[in-house]
Amino acid sequence: MVAAMTSPPERFLRSLRAAGVRRVPRGHIEAAAHVHAAPAAPVVAQPADVAAPARPDSAAALAAIATEVAACTRCGLCEKRTLTVPGEGSPTADIVFIGEGPGADEDRTGRPFVGAAGQLLDKIITAGMKLRREDVFIGNVVKCRPPGNRNPTPDETAACADYLARQIDALAPMVLCALGKVAAHQLLDTTLSMARLRGRVHEYRGIPVIPTYHPAYLLRNPAAKVETWQDIQKVMEIAAS
Ligand code: URA
Ligand code: URA
Question: 214, 218, 220: which to mutate for ligand 2, most atoms within 8 A of CB?
């Protein structure tokens, strides 16, 4: 049987829900509906959480970015995506991981790092760092899946760059951990190899950046986990300072 078809507005709303967005300002839905040239589905308001977030402004800023991303048509990746993957985690995270872009599992669920590489990242966060996944924020350079898991093109990363920049501004973390070459190149505006980049503290707009190997690379090259563990310890040291 052919998979159930969903209309663009439905997918837009599923993207928002996957991103943890519970309320959408009316104008955003109308804007999205306009983009998709289809009527908007109603958004059901959810009861507000009991505890107010510690940094309500960053939560709201992240939700607004996720809403924009869900309707984004800035590059060709929008044509083949199922769900956008804006990123998820604590709006007050001290530690932010940046990957490359969604794979098949992420495209299907709207959540970052949920496939095989994601399971290794989960292990790094929980077993290694003794944190919970929801304590950190996990984002990506591009928010839509490059077909066939190819690297995003320079045009695609450029089209998406402003979303990541605004997410980092909203999060204002203590430290950024760039997972793999694509994220390191984007944040550090360089084309140096990962072998040359890692082992030093870099900087993105005043925020320390630790580049390390991508979890997918570690799955193929388990010996490099030793170096990633050194990098992760540096991440924790900076976050604790
Ligand atoms: N690889 C990435 O770079 N990001 C994801 O979200 C998943 C896999
Ligand atoms: N090369 C990459 O592209 N990524 C890594 O994480 C390591 C080497």
Answer: 214
CATH number at residue 200: 3.40.470.10
Q: Is residue 43 part of a domain?
A: no
- Which pLDDT tens digit goes with each residue over 25-59? 444 443 443 333 334 444 444 445 555 555 569 99
Tell whether 38 is covered by a domain: no
Ligand 1 atom closest to the Cα of residue 179 is 3
The atom number, within ligand 1, closest to the CA of 216 reads 1
In a domain, 11, yes or no: no
Q: How many domains does the chain have?
A: 1
Read off the pLDDT of residues 102-150 as tens digits, 9 standing for 90 and up.
Answer: 999 999 999 999 999 999 999 999 999 999 999 999 999 999 999 998 9
Query: Within a domain: residue 64?
Result: yes
**Strand partners for 175:** 95
The answer to whether the CB of 9 falls within 8 A of the CB of 39 is: yes
Domain that holds residue 145: 58-240
113 lines ligand 1 (CB under 6 A): yes
